[in-house]
């Protein structure tokens, strides 16, 4: 007869028996005599005078001793245990108010097979640990993972606009990361005068001043174009950084611009290029939508998503650019031909840009944060209404998910916008979390956009054009190689995509074994 005192419970911690036992499980163990123990049982034993362990019995010797091993460990426990000293056998597990039987049912029938797999390091847990060991030995660490601490520091500085005295980062790594992510000038603006090393602040200040000088040159050039455009009755709209300076970035050196992105209506493209040519701008021989003049570079678009390059992107912005034009604002007071998107539309344009470029620069996410922070309920209500009209729900939800996680975005409770992890598939959540960890997955954006395009035909078309774009697009991509040949464009693209896919597979495999 089984007595209640034959049983006892204890809570399990750690991952040595994962996934059979998980942290937080309540183990229900039964006291049994040594001769009742069998190969494959999970038992409770003392590994030291003050520590208990729940491991699997993987060997029983004739002298009454046995060896234990955690299913996720690569080797058995170092010392044998006397079977008479075993405190009990795990009969069941209580997990999330559910009782899971261990000593009867399928788990009991296959316990000997499981013990053999554990002993030969073939269980899920031990395979993951073994692969992790191989990765650590033979594969270099991803530098973006190593910089996670510095990225968290950058986020905290942007959130609090200060450098906490208790934090002592690797200053060289912090500088390199800030420069790469386009936030060096922003960082300087917030922490100048702090307790950071003078050499570090001097380098940031240099970045800030160089950015300010470059931005000033571009702004003055745009101001000079207003009269020319007025004479030609031509309208242009500034995109990305040029649409944000002076409005959302109080310091001229806070937001770098490699060039100025301009939107023009398709019917006006040639006329604008000719007008710019008359002002001394030269057209790039290989990239016809880019014009240069001394240190100035203007990138001219007829669609914010460059549908002339990848036609199927049109499905990412179904309403087209005309609604953006109708709601656009004057760039500055007194400027009528140079315009910028209204704040709400700019959020969606920047969200699409961020996804298109796979979140490759942190400053682009900061751009959106600068627009939406400290906004009232009315703004959010109009933003959501505009989101529905422009059919931008999915990409905007991705961005809100990232903003809430990184910047603790404070939305008015009455805004009506609800973004939950359950809104995304497991693959979507996995890719977003990869970016939150700082992983450099170069093609993650187009993969996420596939979830947004409606219809199988549209998705396949988008995938085909993204992987194998037009020949002239590939010619621009490979133009940096002096010996490029047209016949080699697509083979080169195939090799590039295979290497990229392998990197992604390695990342997800690494994420799996380290989880």
Task: Explain the overall architecture.
By secondary structure, the protein is α+β, with helices and mostly antiparallel strands. Helix content is 45%, strand content 14%. The chain is built from 19 helices and 15 strands. The chain has helices at residues 106-109, 111-119, 124-138, 143-146, 148-160, 171-180, 184-191, 198-232, 269-278, 322-326, 343-356, 362-372, 377-390, 393-407, 426-436, 444-450, 456-467, 471-477, 489-514, and strands at 7-11, 26-30, 42-48, 51-60, 65-69, 81-82, 88-95, 98-101, 236-239, 260-263, 282-283, 290-293, 296-301, 329-330, 338-340. Strands 1, 2, 3, 4, 5, 6, 7 and 8 form an eight-stranded antiparallel β-sheet that branches. A hairpin with a 6-residue loop joins β11 (282-283) and β12. α3 (124-138) packs across α19 (489-514), α6 packs parallel to α8 and α7 (184-191) crosses α8 (198-232). The longest helix has 35 residues, at 198-232. It is elongated. The model is unreliable at 137-146 (pLDDT under 50).
